[in-house]
Predict the structure of ABC3 transporter permease C-terminal domain-containing protein.
Amino acid sequence: MVRFIWRYLRGRLGRSVALLAGVLVATTGFVVLTGATDTSRLEVTGSVGRETRAAYDILVRPKGARTPLEARQRLVRPNYLSGQFGGLTFDDWAKVRDVPGVGVAAPIAMIGYSTMSLHVPVDVTDAVDRSLDRQVIRVDTTYEAERGLSRADAAPGWVYVTKNSVIYPSFEPSPDRPGRYTDGREYPPFDCGGGLFPYPDREVLPDGTTVPVCPTDQSAGDLRAGQTRSDLERPWWYTVHLRPDGRFETGSRSGPGAPLGRPVDRLVVRAFATVPFLLAAVDPDSEERLVGLRGATVAGRALTGADRPTDTPTTANITAQRIFPAVASSRAYVDLKAATRLSRLASPQVSGLSSDAVRTALTASAGTPAGEWRGDVNDRYRESMDRRMAADALSGELLETVVQPGPVSYERLPDGTLRATTVPRAPDVFGAGRFAGLPQPWLAADQWFRPLTRVELVDPASGGAFRSWRPVGLFDPEKLTGFSDVSRVPLETYEPPAVTGADPASRAALGDQPLLPGGNPGGYLSPPPLLLTNLDVVPALFDRYPDRAAAPISAIRVKVAGVDGFSEVNAERVRAAAEEIARRTGLDVDITLGSSPEPQTVELAAGAFGRPELRVGEGWSSIGVASRIVRAVDRKSLTLFALVLVVCALFLGNAVSAAVRDRRTELAVLSCLGWPARRIAASVLGEVAVIGTVAGLAAVGLSLPLAAVLDIRVPAGRAAVAVPVALALALVAGLVPAVGAARTHPAAALRPVRGTSRRRRHARGVFGLSVVNLTRVPGRTVLGAGALAIGVAALTVLAAVTIAFHGTVVGTLLGDAVSVTVRGVDRLAAGATVLLGVVAVADVMYLNVRDRAAELATLRATGWTDAALVRLIAYEGGLLGLLGAVTGAGAGLAAAAWLVGDVPYRLVAVAVGTAAVGVLVAGVAAIVPTVLLRRLPAARLLAEE
């Protein structure tokens, strides 16, 4: 048997080499190209919430930004972006923005907390005894936060009310006349005892003389630069003129150009409350498209991409400033109140005394209770912000430093509750190197659950302009997309912070109300960014820190185009975009589509100001679709590479079938000599098995250097797969012809080889004869056309994805959402498939010409010219190519349309184009057999016939 097979292969050496070359090319291509199917893929696991729709679908963060808790349990705290500072560059943003399918890529750069002094209004009108010429109203303030559970007494405030006229410093911006007052006169400075401003209010006595009235809040004590004072340590003072008409008039120490207070019927003073606001930078246009920031503007104007810091010059009393524009929240979202007790001190002596002497005298005096008052920071917040937006505002809010909070750490208790761990306090983080006595939130002396870091935006040793921010407009966060609907829309950038009691004791302590932030940046609750500036100003803000300025972006929130709700197709569309973002950037990419709120019980340690230990329920976000980058096989590419083998099998099967047809007489003789059917089949399979084995061994040696040249990683173990692949390919291709050979009847030795067409057809003309010829051996025609059709179908799908869908298409297949992304190796595989299909067409035409050699010689002898014979073969090749190309293009069009559920005109145009290419290359392939026509030995063939 072995000798028989070897003699046959040697006897038909040319044909054997051709078959071996085909198997070698297909097997080598398959092994090498499958080395490129390992690709970065975003694997999505877990179930998804079908009722959710976040403002964004994908979250991009710096590499390694995921917390351990998030990595373990896929749980994310509300406003988790508030603790992420920088890490992404503007180039990262551009890469994300350029990914196909990305509709909006909105960057956000968390900068840190900036504190602002707000006022708690206190109405003391009813505490004033209008019969007294002079009196002092003492205001004892108890600050309350966290639903009244945290309480602290502040230093008293004082309201000096006199019927004598009062003159106030005019703050005229002239370096020559700093002591000018509202009566038009100039007065010498008065030392109130270490105060910052030597021109206090002056009381006009009945004899016309004036005496200074030193406020108790003017002394900064022995604080050094960088040290701060809590709101609890800040006494405050008002000098009030009780006019003859019963109204009240107060002055202003706000700065140059500040007008005197208008006479008012009610005397409302203000206690100070320092509140931290988280400052972030956004791209205004992207933020508008993502959450409707511009449409949420309720006062002033919206933030624009043209906003830049402005510089103000130094005047007599105000240092030069660099003011950064911002839009502020129209709501404070802080639970901070003040309960005040009023008492009246009659006829005290305060005029002409130093601040310390005034404080001593007033503290020693007994007062008469004069009422109580409760105020809320939120009551006058809007008024305060409107005043800061005014065109004549003297300055902005100080921005010399920012405070950046870190993440909260947790330990899990046996019952599954998370205990938030406390960290040491560092009160001086609220200071600024060029200032002494800056205020800090009183609740900052409470427990800290997160570390705080001070970032000096200005060199403390510099004498340059102060830095500040000023609001240019107000936006209502509750008008932003998804802000108020916390229960349905998780993972929002501006989510309102709130937790509720998780056990009866905690609910009772909170009065069945949610716990809100109280103004402690180190506290557990982290508010969203409520101050927004333009992203383009961040490099100027961090000019002391080149690394921060180069990578200021904390996260990029991505909204995928065409995704307006959850569906399997939309989920796959989001996954495909996320995968491409991860591939291009190498950053942490999370899919937020389908995220859902999940209550989490958190235990908070008791506070330093009376708040008991609480167990609270917090709506964390469960990222329902966990995502991770894995090395996975691109099944679409693997399918394309398998098609290379399929087409090769068709080509090989056609060739073996032709060989069996040629040897029908020989095989019939063997049957007559007693060879059993199985031995005849084994001989045919043995021949193709030898070809396959040799091709496989050659492919092993060829694939490794070829992979190195193409920069594709192919391990030796994978290269060794070439042998079984080639052998299996050869056996599969030869199986049907071998079975046919085994069924050869001995009488076949007496019958000529002819086509299988069952009825005679009368052809008219060259074209008609070409049609008849193709139907004479329909199996061969189908094999050739099918091989070409497979290649054209693959090429049509890839061309449709590339041209009509810009490289990626998402749709459904058999009920599953799938995405197809075209890569270079895919195009190479499709090209190889088409090429093998063309070779199969050429082989079919070659076999047709060879089998009909005598017939063609007869036509030439009867007067057919060579041109007519060439046209005949060309028509057959063209029709065969047309059949395969149209079938393949139609199948590819149907597959692409099925995938996307639509047939756009561009898809049809692509299908028509690939069909035309298929017909063209098939026509070119038909040229090869025409060369054989000129070599036909007409005389010998006619003699044999």
